[in-house]
Amino acid sequence: MALADGALPVLPLGADKRPLGNCRNCTGLACGGRPNMKVPGSCVCPWPCHGWAAATTNPSVLASRQWGLAWRRARAIGYHPGGAGVTVVDLDNPDAVTWARATLPATTTVATTRGEHWIYSGTVRSVNGVREGLDIKSLTSYARWLGPGTGAMADVPAAVHALVAEKPAARSAPCAVRVPAPAGGGACPHRSPTYLERGIAMAEQRITAATSGVHATVYRTFLAVLSAHGRCGCLTETHIGRLFTAAQAKGESARHCTDAWANATTALGI
Questions:
Q1: How many CB atoms lie within 10 A of CB 46?
Q2: Which residues does residue 189 pair with via DSSP β-bridges, in sequence order?
Q3: How many angstroms separate the CA atoms of 222 and 85, rounded?
Q4: CA geometry: angle 151, 156, 161, nearest 5 deg
Q5: Most distant CA pair in the chain: distance in Å?
Q6: Residue 188 and residue 68: Cα distance in Å, rounded?
């Protein structure tokens, strides 16, 4: 709770350093979520219950019954670096540490079991294996909390940006989803196309502005859009593509977007 009060989005980790399921359906990852998730996998719960997207600073969520069992089983605290506005250079062996000391500017440093975490101010794309024993953890990733570390924090250096740029991102095209028109057809109840455009723009903004609980924000936003526009037939694949693009820009996978959309349509009986 103290870390969350300090604007660090946190989540419970097990003894194996993996995120724990924070709800009954996801205990032991029985939901089918990938064990070492950077993006929550095939879990289709309507809230974020494991993985980096579950990290939050909300004290009500952290103290809720939903999270209580996971915290009691937790053996470590994880956090979402990107949500805290930082990047962790995870140096996993002595050779990687030696390389960092010769190449990167000094910054806040935290000792780990096998090496060190070098923490910089600013966010970048998360990439594993940019060098032998070196991972970049920032957006769409989590790291283990091992203490505040020592040394003044520097900005993300050009060398880290270069390492990230060397690994091209594997991006999926936004998934097109057709929303069926209501049975029997009928006229669109919206008085102006401006109403729909404003709603889609607000939905994009809501997703883009999320700093924690990204999975839940995407689901709730999809639910709100479908609730307002899903039955009249005015939504097009272009509108839906915009929402998927905004979600994927926050680190959601195409499959995850499709699952969230399907859950929203099911919840509304569309």
A1: 15
A2: none
A3: 26
A4: 145
A5: 70
A6: 45
The model scores a pTM over 0.85? no
Identity of the amino acid at 183: A
Render pLDDT for 119-146 as a digit per residue (tens, 0 to 9): 999 999 888 889 889 999 998 889 999 9
Q: Where are the alpha helices (DSSP H) in the chain?
A: 2-5, 59-62, 65-73, 94-103, 158-166, 193-209, 214-229, 237-249, 254-268
Extract the tokens encoding 170. Answer: 């594997």
Q: How many angstroms separate the CA atoms of 189 and 21, rounded?
A: 42
Q: Where are the beta strands (DSSP E) in 40-191?
A: 76-79, 86-91, 108-111, 116-121, 127-131, 134-137, 143-144
Q: Could you tell me the two tokens for 57?
A: 């600073």
- Chain-centre distance of CA 38, in angstroms? 8
3-state helix, strand, coil in the chain (%, to 5): 40, 15, 45
Q: Report the distance separating Cα 96 and Cα 90, nearest Å.
A: 9
Total number of residues shown for the chain: 270
Q: Is residue 224 exposed (0-12), middle (13-18) or buried (19+ Cβ within 10 Å)? A: middle
Q: How is residue 148 written in tokens?
A: 């505040």
H-helix or E-strand spanning residue 12: strand 10-13
